[in-house]
Amino acid sequence: MPKFAMRKILFVTSEAHPLIKTGGLADVAGSLPKVLNEMGVDVRLIMPNYQAIKTTEEIYYKSTIRVNNINAHILETRLPGTKVPVWLLDCPEFFDYPGNPYVDELGKPWLNSAQRFAFFCRIVVEVAMNRGYLEWRPDIIHCNDWQTGLVPALLSLEKDLRPATIFTIHNMAYQGLFPKETRVMLNLPSRLWSSNGVEFNGMLSFIKGGIVYADRITTVSPTYANEIQTADFGYGVEGLLSYRQEYLTGIVNGIDVDQWNPQTDTNISACYDATSLHKKQLNKAALQIKYALPVDKNIPIFVLISRLVEQKGIDLLLECLPEMLNLPLQFVLLGKGDKLLEQQLFRFSKKYPEKMVVNLGYDEALAHQFEAGADIFLMPSRFEPCGLNQLYSQRYGTVPIVTRTGGLADTVVDTLPETLKNKTATGFVFNAPTVGSLMEAIKRALIVYENSKDWKQLQINGMKKDYSWNRSAKEYLALYEKL
Ligand code: ADP
Ligand code: GLC
Q1: CA of 24 to the centre of ligand 2 (A)
Q2: How buried is residue 324: exposed, middle or buried, by Cβ count under 10 Å (0-12/13-18/19+)?
Q3: From 307, 377, 379, 393, mutation site for ligand 1 pocket: most ligand atoms within 8 A of C-beta
Q4: Percentage of the residues of the chain whose pLDDT score is greater than 70
Q5: Each residue of 356-384: pLDDT tens digit?
Q6: What is the pLDDT of residues 98-123, one digit of tens each?
Q7: Exposed (0-12), middle (13-18) or buried (19+): which is 282, by Cβ within 10 Å?
Q8: What are phi and psi of 258, to 5 degrees?
């Protein structure tokens, strides 16, 4: 048995697909542990037991842990369809409410976010130190994003032998910053309170707990690992990140190739692969029919699936729309988020009903239908730590148009005469998040689309790429080994 099989990993996350998902973190937390488990690693997940969690698996009571005079029950289940054990931290006073991990039913951030996730972190520390009556002592605690940032910080204060810690940054834009009084309210040890600790410009920073105290830091692409060490992407933490450069690596995300597989996808009208690309047309027609768009296989359909927030360049796209919608194309969008952006997009769709459709909502099955039915995927992000939809798109023969940033730069190869010739081109990459640059990429894509031979080659190049977790999971294993 390989050496790494001996390692016991506790994977700490605020969301995991299909239990609960708001974005790419859930995709990663739902797929990386599965692959590690298949590689023989004893990996377990821990996350809060939100009201919105959905599962078909059984749930058992395991133990009760008490911290700060509050009881939390640990329930055990499995990541649906896998052998990965999941521990759900059940504490109704924090988590038994409608809404998602970060916002309530009305979309407002939870007023007690700091308390909710600090409590979660404290329970994780108890489990990490094998004080949770679970009879399992992890070697490594793998934390993700600010919600878990206090785990490495609190573990650093343990006197007994503690497990090693890894902190993965999925997005520097979310740091878990709270007024300084929160520290006292959370009863955090004063030893953690300094600019070399969890203090950030007089505020409490959860993410610094991870960045300062974790034994290793990772982020989700090599380019983003460099970017966050600069003022443009580091949100004031760039200095600390470059100070800890030696311990920081970028590992590009993989995807769940079982769930995102056009050959077997049960959400789509017709399954296909690189040798039966003509069947993709049936999915295109289904999308056109569904949204009452003219059914025409020669008009390219652009899609966008996204959280509607500034990061994703939606404002740029809005500026492009008047010109874009005068070109021979159709555009279908699935997204949810900022209300103003939602309204602006919706208004455009009313103005151009024959060309643009806006579906304001969150729908997993539809996301698959969009990937299968589209010709082109738009991802004009201002920054993108990794991005998953450009990977799903390539696997579905849908050609992505992306900004040259973060994981997009690392995973899409621009179409140029030489990359077409050597069969490496998989999409269109534009240099700067500007209207001019994005429009130019859209026009370049339309020109290549006219040449069906080149277009097919682009689709096949993308479909042949291996975006499974195999390579990246091995990089994580190598890192676990070093610890
Ligand atoms: P981020 O995590 O920043 O939102 P990613 O590209 O890493 O970006 O992951 C986004 C994930 O969320 C993808 O799986 C995408 O399909 C999904 N997603 C985003 N918005 C929607 C939506 N409105 N409906 C369905 N899936 C969505
Ligand atoms: C974040 C990032 C996204 C990344 C995802 C999973 O939400 O915005 O780029 O793919 O995390 O790592």
Answers
A1: 5
A2: buried
A3: 307
A4: 99
A5: 999 999 999 999 999 999 999 999 999 99
A6: 999 999 999 899 999 999 999 999 99
A7: middle
A8: -85, -45
8-254+469-482 architecture in CATH? 3-Layer(aba) Sandwich (3.40)
Q: Which residue has the tokens 């200095």?
A: 239
Return the ligand number nearest the Cα of 221.
2
Q: What are residue 332's phi and psi, to 5 degrees?
A: -125, 130
Q: Which CATH number fits domain 277-463: 3.40.50.300, 3.40.50.2000, 1.10.10.10, 3.30.70.3270?
A: 3.40.50.2000
pLDDT beyond 60 at 5: no
Dihedral angle sign, alpha carbons of residues 13, 16, 21, 24: positive
Q: Which atom of ligand 2 is nearest to the CA of 27?
A: 6
Q: Are strands 42-48 and 8-12 parallel, antiparallel or unpaired?
A: parallel
Minimum-distance ligand 1 atom for the alpha carbon of 171: 3
CA of 236 to the centre of ligand 2 (A): 20
Cα-Cα-Cα-Cα dihedral of 149, 157, 76, 119, to 10°?
Answer: -60
Q: Could you read off the pLDDT of 136-160 as tens digits, one per residue?
A: 999 999 999 999 999 999 999 998 8
* Mean pLDDT taken over the chain: 97
Q: Residue holding tokens 């991990």?
A: 101
- Ligand 1: residue of 27, 172, 310 to mutate (most ligand atoms within 8 A of CB) is 27
Atom from ligand 2 closest to the CA of residue 173 = 8
> What is the residue extent of each domain of the chain?
8-254+469-482, 277-463
- Are 59 and 74 in contact by the 8 Å Cβ rule? The answer is no
- pLDDT higher than threshold 80 for residue 2: no
Q: Look at residues 408, 393, 237, 226 and name the one whose alpha carbon lies nearest to residue 313.
A: 408
| Percent of the chain scoring above 90 in pLDDT | 97
